[in-house]
């Protein structure tokens, strides 16, 4: 029997995903009809992204699951018409991209690369950086992305502390959780990496008090979500000299408006939400595996807990 898979992600993605999805569904043994225009009551699975035209899921009466192409789901978890299971994206390509972005930006700040790349002015700045072992890194969020980034940084020698909602045991990392855990994780953060989802609990987590609890001169990297940081508190902490730098990939409003003070601030680096992308070839295999599981009556992978919001 044919399984109808509606590609309802942002239209521009269809060219990138059509062939990888067809191949992956076929390889998973699914007799699939994959299209962008299947009548709603006939749809078995929806491949989704936040920019989709589909905002009302009510007509999709036999749909077994919505399969999100993005890791972040904050734009869809509040949709009351979405009553079927929602799976988010955990993709090896996405994870590896994030590890590369985080490692690169941690090393930029750790090694003080700007001093040599941006200032070739004849001054002999003999100021060697410490070893990684002397630069504690804290990662807020120990999920698919935070854990992989923590493991990569620990491999390079950084003492890595990770913080999550529930207790974790990740070899090579100091794992903390809960309110006391957060205080301890922030107090030691020479470099702080935010890899939390945006939920009602994590919004504005980095407020003025928590920014003040970071060691003087510390650096923040935010490839998580813009709403994790109070923008005004961040600018105040940078202007006061308490923080050394902020490298931001995600923002409350994207694209970041040209007049936003982050663009012109000398201690802020803006990257345009490019830390990591879902990669069509590997992501298609994740989608196909979930369709296979759904058809076989097996539990789906990477299900979102709608109450927790991630
Ligand atoms: P994930 O696997 O769902 O992990 C989320 C982590 O955050 C988990 O460790 C979770 O704790 C922790 N967490 C959530 N709420 C918390 C709370 N209230 N207190 C403490 N810890 C909390 O997510 P992921 O795949 O790693 O992705 C993380 C985020 O990265 C995404 O949500 C998205 O916003 C962002 N992202 C950005 C880009 C980019 O290009 N910039 C690309 C992809 C993703 P538990 O483990 O205890 O549940």
UniProtKB/TrEMBL annotation:
Molecular function GO labels: NAD binding; oxidoreductase activity, acting on the CH-OH group of donors, NAD or NADP as acceptor
Looking at the keywords, is Nucleotide-binding present?
A: no
InterPro entries assigned: D-isomer_DH_CS, D-isomer_DH_NAD-bd, NAD(P)-bd_dom_sf
Reading the lineage from the top rank, the first entry is Bacteria
Per UniProt, residues of the D-isomer specific 2-hydroxyacid dehydrogenase NAD-binding domain are 116-275
Q: Which organism is this protein's natural source?
A: Sediminimonas qiaohouensis
Give the source lineage, highest ranks first: Bacteria, Pseudomonadati, Pseudomonadota, Alphaproteobacteria, Rhodobacterales
List UniProt keywords, sorted A-Z: NAD, Oxidoreductase, Pyruvate
Task: Name the Pfam families for this protein.
Answer: 2-Hacid_dh_C (PF02826)
Q: Which SUPFAM superfamilies does UniProt cross-reference here?
A: NAD(P)-binding Rossmann-fold domains
Q: What is this protein called?
A: Glyoxylate/hydroxypyruvate reductase A
Q: Which PANTHER family match?
A: 2-HACID_DH_C DOMAIN-CONTAINING PROTEIN (PTHR43333), D-ISOMER SPECIFIC 2-HYDROXYACID DEHYDROGENASE NAD-BINDING DOMAIN-CONTAINING PROTEIN (PTHR43333:SF1)
């Amino acid at each position: 029997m044919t399984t109808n898979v509606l590609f309802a992600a942002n239209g521009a993605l269809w060219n990138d995903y059509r062939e990888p999805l067809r191949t992956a569904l076929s390889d998973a043994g699914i007799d699939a009809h994959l299209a962008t225009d299947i009548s709603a009551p006939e749809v078995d699975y929806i491949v989704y992204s936040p920019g989709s035209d589909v905002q009302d899921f009510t007509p999709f009466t036999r749909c077994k699951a919505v399969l999100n192409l993005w890791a972040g789901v904050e734009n869809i978890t509040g949709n009351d018409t979405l009553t079927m299971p929602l799976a988010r994206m955990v993709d090896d390509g996405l994870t590896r991209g994030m590890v590369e972005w985080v490692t690169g930006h941690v090393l930029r700040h750790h090694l003080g690369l700007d001093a040599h790349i941006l200032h070739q002015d004849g001054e002999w700045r003999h100021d060697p950086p410490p070893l990684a072992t002397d630069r504690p890194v804290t990662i807020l969020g120990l999920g698919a992305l935070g854990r992989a980034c923590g493991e990569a940084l620990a491999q390079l020698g950084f003492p890595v502390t990770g913080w999550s909602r529930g207790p974790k045991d990740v070899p090579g990392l100091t794992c903390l959780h809960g309110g006391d855990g957060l205080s301890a994780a922030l107090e030691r953060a020479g470099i702080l990496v935010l890899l939390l989802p945006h939920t009602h609990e994590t919004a504005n987590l980095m407020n003025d008090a928590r920014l003040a609890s970071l060691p003087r001169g510390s650096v923040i990297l935010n490839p998580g979500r813009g709403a994790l940081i109070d923008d005004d508190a961040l600018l105040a902490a940078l202007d006061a000299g308490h923080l050394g730098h902020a490298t931001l990939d995600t923002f409350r409003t994207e694209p970041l408006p040209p007049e936003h003070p982050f663009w012109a601030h000398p201690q802020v680096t803006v990257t345009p939400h490019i830390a990591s992308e879902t990669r069509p070839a590997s992501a298609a295999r994740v989608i196909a595996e979930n369709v296979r599981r759904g058809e076989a009556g097996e539990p789906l992978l990477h299900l979102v807990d709608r109450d927790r919001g991630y």
